[in-house]
Amino acid sequence: MTVLLVLIGVVAIGAAFTLMLTAPDNRDDVTVTEGSPGPAVSTQRPARNIQDVIRDLEADEQVDLGPSALARYGQAISPQSRINLLERRIVHAAEGSNYSLTQLFEVKFFGLLLGFVGGAYMVYLNPKPMNWLIAGVIMIVGFIAVDVVIDSRAQKRQKEIQDAVPDMLDQMVISVESGLGLESALTRIASTNDNALADELTRTLRDMRLGASRGEALHDLLDRVDVADLRLFIRALILADRSGVPIANVCRVQASEAREKRRVRAEEQAMKLPVKLIFPLVLCILPALFIVVLGPAVIQMKQNGLI
Questions:
Q1: Residue 41: helix, strand or coil by DSSP?
Q2: Nearest of 166, 95, 233, 150 to residue 221 by alpha carbon
């Protein structure tokens, strides 16, 4: 029976790889030109914005074969809200150039298959009700492990951007008041810092150099970040650009508010510290303290026959 389960696992894994490799060819539709000997590729889909052009330039001329069967199965058993959230998390984590949504769902479904094989083998060895529950948990963990990793990377990157916003705004105030324009100030900040915010500013400046307007590039930056302070500053910049308000005044006000919010966040974390210390204090420190203080007394009382 053990050999049979191992064979089933091998067949399941082999079937997963087969489905991944034999995905249907979902190339773009082609149109046949009248009088031509063969089909001609339709080029009636222009790029929607500068981001599409950049993605095409970074695609390394790879042919899009569409999602594999493994990815389609993974998406079929996932809620649409989770699919949309995972897609946004990929953008927030800046992993779009490393992993696509299709590849992540392939890994998710493959993890589900591995969890199924491992859980089935564990239930076969000891078919207790608790093992059935553990097998189900293993399958769920195998399916959501990718989501946990991407969520963690996205939160870490957004936290890094949030921590860098006040310093960036202070540099903006100094640069703009010294006579630099907005793009020159952003270029200076991006070149003198090494963090996630500098990377996002560099990408925004690249969009401007490739032909995007300032408002369009800033709107694209809003789509890539999930930091309230930066989003508020970008919206203020867009509004100032439209209404003709001096950018130096906007930067000064936003820098003051960002510093105040950072101080409030620090105070909030300090107020949470006593609550977080309760559990290690009660579970680790107090028992050891009681043993050291009361242990000799208990031993002496026991020797004297008092207990």
A1: strand
A2: 233
DSSP 285: I
Are 146 and 106 in contact by the 8 Å Cβ rule? The answer is: no
Contacts of 110 (CB under 8 A, 6+ apart): 13, 16, 70
Separation between Cα atoms, residue 152 and residue 86, nearest integer Å = 12
Q: With bands split at pLDDT 50, 70 and 90, how would you rate the model's confidence at 91? A: confident
For 177-193, the pLDDT digits (tens) are 888 888 888 888 888 88
d(CA 123, CA 126): 5
d(CA 303, CA 298) in angstroms, rounded, equals 9
Helix 69-76 vs helix 2-21: angle between axes, to the nearest 10 degrees?
A: 110
pLDDT in tens, 102-128: 778 788 878 888 888 888 887 788 778
For the chain, first and last CA: distance in Å?
A: 57
pTM above 0.70, yes or no: no
User: 244 in the Ramachandran plot: left (φ > 0), alpha (ψ -120 to 50) or beta?
Assistant: left
Q: How far apart are CA 43 and CA 94, in angstroms?
A: 29
- 3-state SS, residue 30: strand
pLDDT tens track for 166-175: 888 888 888 8
Q: Do 142 and 115 contact (CB within 8 A), yes or no? A: yes
Burial of residue 134, with CB atoms counted within 10 A of its CB: 0-12 exposed, 13-18 middle, 19 or more buried: middle
Pull the structure tokens for residue 162: 């949030």
Q: How far apart are CA 253 and CA 239, in angstroms?
A: 14
